[in-house]
Amino acid sequence: MRYHFEKPAVSLSMYGRRYICNHPVYDSCTLFEIDEKGLAVIQQRFDPKTKSTSWTEVDAYLTDVLYLHPKFKEFFDERAGTCTDGLYPTVTIRQIMWALKMKPLPKQKWETVFDRSPI
């Protein structure tokens, strides 16, 4: 039996912020910053009207869960970097959840994947 991350009944979003940028893959992301370094996290969305997908910021209920995870700082130090041309190193929500050994979000059949490749 598979287990997936379930949305909490009550959620707050104190960590991470929405960041608007001009990246080739996405226009907005959730940015986590510590000192001079930052890490952008994106999540894929599906628009049933146009049957298209896009990458945007992660759901607000996930930001604190990620940031407060005991292994987040280690992952952040490994993958984060300074801003270059308005862009930060980027990971998908699924990549970070797997790296932190969290239960993943249920996979949708319309999702595309950036498996271990840089974004």
Tag the structure with descriptive keywords:
119 residues, alpha+beta, five-stranded mixed β-sheet
Largest sheet: 5 strands, mixed
The computed structural class is alpha+beta
Q: Round the Cα radius of gyration to an integer and report it.
A: 14 Å
- The 3D shape can be described as globular
Count of strand segments: 5
- Average of pLDDT: 89
Terminal-residue CA separation:
31 Å
Polypeptide structure, described:
This protein is an alpha+beta fold. It has a domain at 17-99. The chain is built from 3 helices and 5 strands, in the order ββββααβα. Strands 1, 2, 3, 4 and 5 form a 5-stranded mixed β-sheet that branches. The protein is globular.
Question: Brief description of this entry?
Answer:
The chain has 119 residues and is of the alpha+beta class. The chain is 19% helix and 25% strand.
